[in-house]
Specification:
By secondary structure, this protein is α+β, with helices and mostly antiparallel strands. It has nine helices and four strands. Strands 1-2-4-3 form a four-stranded antiparallel β-sheet. Helix 2 crosses helix 4, helix 2 crosses helix 5 and helix 5 crosses helix 9.
Length: about 230
């Protein structure tokens, strides 16, 4: 097997997050509704649906030409991100912004591992290679190329060695959409998804994920770092 044969090799992060199957979307939506209804109840859910529809309509009117100038043509991704932000905004109409983000993070912790298992190769896939970390490193390089090609993310490879790969992202379509809609803090949920997904999803026991800074909180880049774990 070649690294290029692994599931979704070369696709961007934006393509992956917007390519869930209908079955996966049903399962994750059901899990999300269960968490939200625990906080809202029946009448609260009706209020949420009303605010969501209103926020979705408003956000879809936003001029996002800056994304397209960067090469983004994936309209499904843009719509999915708008709907995600509209949901969080709708929650904040019922609760405080902090409470809305807290509930959304609860959803991320439950949903992200399953989504990552769906879109990324499994641990078993990587273990078929003589060097699982090297296969993972090459897979990440393919994703970085996909990000650049599709206008999803831009940056540079800060480190690419036998024991680590780090990508420093200086432009991110996820963050750009949130920023254009004045919902920058909601983009942190993508950072939480990386933590939840790589801890509970496709990461192998030979790989550790770290991120020390992000654009949302004022850093000059999001430093996505993967390191080889040497088991003594």
């Amino acid at each position: 097997m070649q690294v290029q044969d692994l599931k979704n090799y070369g696709k961007s992060g934006c393509e992956l997050t917007s390519s869930s199957s209908k079955e996966l979307e049903k399962r994750t939506s059901k899990a999300a509704r269960k968490i939200v209804s625990k906080h809202l109840g029946f009448l609260g859910m009706l209020r949420l649906m009303f605010h969501f529809a209103k926020e979705r309509r408003r956000m879809l009117k936003q001029d996002l030409s800056s994304l397209r100038e960067k090469g983004m043509t994936n309209e499904r991704f843009i719509t999915k991100e708008i709907e995600r932000l509209a949901f969080i905004s709708a929650l904040s109409r019922i609760f405080s912004k902090e409470k809305a983000l807290q509930i959304s993070n609860e959803i991320v912790k439950v949903v992200a591992p399953e989504v990552f298992l769906h879109v990324f190769p499994s641990r078993e896939d990587y273990m078929k290679f003589d060097d699982p970390f090297d296969a993972f490193r090459k897979y990440i390089l393919g994703m970085v190329e996909g990000d650049e090609r599709t206008g999803c993310r831009q940056g540079e490879i800060a480190e690419n060695t036998n024991d680590a790969i780090q990508t420093d992202v200086t432009y991110c379509a996820f963050y750009e959409i949130a920023k254009q809609l004045s919902m920058e803090e909601a983009c942190l949920l993508h950072c939480y998804a990386h933590d939840a997904g790589f801890q509970g999803g496709s990461e192998t026991s030979e790989i550790a994920f770290k991120m020390t800074g992000n654009l949302v909180e004022g850093a000059s880049r999001c430093d996505l770092r993967f390191e080889r774990v040497r088991n003594e």
